[in-house]
Write a structure and sequence with these properties.
Two copies of one chain form a homodimer. Chain A is α/β, with parallel strands linked by helices and 260 residues long. Chain A is 37% helix and 23% strand. Chain A has a six-stranded mixed beta sheet, with helices on both faces. A four-stranded antiparallel beta sheet of chain A has the order 10-11-9-12.
Chain lengths: 260, 260
């Protein structure tokens, strides 16, 4: 992710980064039966595109709860991604909830219905055909490689909960977002043997001097190689490097450290 | 988790289950640098105690955002668990945010300060001592085995973000909650080779007949052994078993299935 080529090159005034929220739908996550596995993959993809994932909410399979959340999150973020609840069974209520949030009816997409009939042929059931239901006005996004449509209504993407299928859809989203995204983040890291208590005064000085660089500190409890990982993130690599180097300059002489 | 001993034994009228929410604090989760690893462990523990985890929210390291969320989630659930942001550095703002949410000041706990001074001795720094800061009025929960205090303010527990330490704290929470919790859930499962489209009419009938049993359906895409896992959950094992058996009775003759 590091891009050192921009060092010293004058930057255009940056527009504010696009923001995103994720809404994970599923009783199975909240009951602990299934581990949530989609947010991290989504977060990394968004980060690579310079989109700031600001909020994640996990809710139960309840239409009104989901609708209320979609209304709020889609209004307050540039993009909203839902995960889960798009299959054909009684607990799959995301399409209905998104439609309700945007005040549109649920309709059958002729295009998706034709695809389902072509796939299942004489085995097709009413349950299969429920997978053609979309909120009215939804766009069906595809790429050359991924031709089964991904449903997008305005700024809200409806992604499936099954992790393998969720991951298959991400390139479709990435292709669409790439056109509108701000420059990607750059990230630097330092590993030290000091603990957070000892590091605090040093970090406070760096944070004060570089308000445009986000400084993170992550203690590792059971690792002999280092005790704390410090991260330096921002949109301007020169500033990120300067913050990291300012921090290195504050370390006691001989403090073991590794940088990346 | 299954408890078949309650079959046929008359149940006392159940009080409604206690509810819980989790608030995960951390830019590192939202940026995709670190995978969230605490919610599933918390969810499983709560489920074993019969507590219903109803909502999870992930937010950035921002005091006002966290405070607003703590205020809302602690008001609308029996229990709230925060994860992360309790270390000594500038991005650890959870104690301050919880205090603000409850309208109390942050104070240094004499008990925790003494423990920190005893541990670090002459190496103790201002950063270390920040770990003694608590919202005024907080209880310090311990067990015989886990003597470093876990901070609880009213119905809100402040848990650390580091997964190994988070897990060490769960027994303290479980001990406290066990006294007040409702009976645990029981869970049954059936694995079939039918897909969700074919299963829908069968499931709809079971859902209609057993409103007190939660029926879940989880397609597995890349497994030769089965295509869909059905789960049947509730507080009364007799009802859960009856719902499962009603479903089995609806399957076509010869449909391969496995139950558990």
């Amino acid at each position: 992710m590091d891009r050192s080529s921009s060092r010293g090159i004058p930057q255009e005034p940056a527009e504010p980064p696009k923001t995103a929220a994720a809404l994970v739908i599923g009783d199975e996550i909240l009951s602990g039966k299934v581990e949530e596995a989609n947010v991290a993959a989504l977060a990394r993809m968004l980060r690579g595109l310079g989109v700031l994932l600001r909020r994640v909410v996990v809710v139960m399979d309840d239409v009104e709860t989901i609708a209320r959340e979609v209304r709020e999150l889609s209004r307050t973020h540039d993009w909203l991604f839902t995960s889960g609840g798009v299959g054909p069974t009684h607990d799959d209520v995301t399409v209905e909830a998104v439609a309700r949030a945007f005040g549109v009816p649920v309709v059958s997409s002729a295009e998706m219905e034709a695809m389902l009939r072509a796939h299942y042929r004489e085995r097709v059931t009413e349950g299969h055909l429920r997978m053609a239901l979309v909120p009215q006005g939804a766009a069906l996004e595809v790429t050359n490689e991924i031709t089964w449509p991904t449903i997008r209504l305005s700024n809200t993407w409806l992604l499936p909960g099954i992790p393998e299928v969720f991951r298959m859809k991400l390139p479709v989203v990435a292709t669409y977002l790439a056109a509108t995204a701000a420059p990607a983040f750059v990230s630097r890291a330092v590993y030290v043997k000091m603990d957070e208590g000892e590091l605090k005064p040093l970090l406070d000085r760096v944070v004060g001097t570089f308000p445009d660089v986000s400084v993170g500190s992550y203690p590792k409890w059971f690792d002999a190689a280092y005790k704390t990982k410090l991260t330096f993130d921002g949109r301007d690599d020169a500033r990120v490097l300067a913050a990291r180097d300012a921090f290195l300059g504050l370390l006691p002489v001989g403090e073991p450290q590794r940088t990346e």
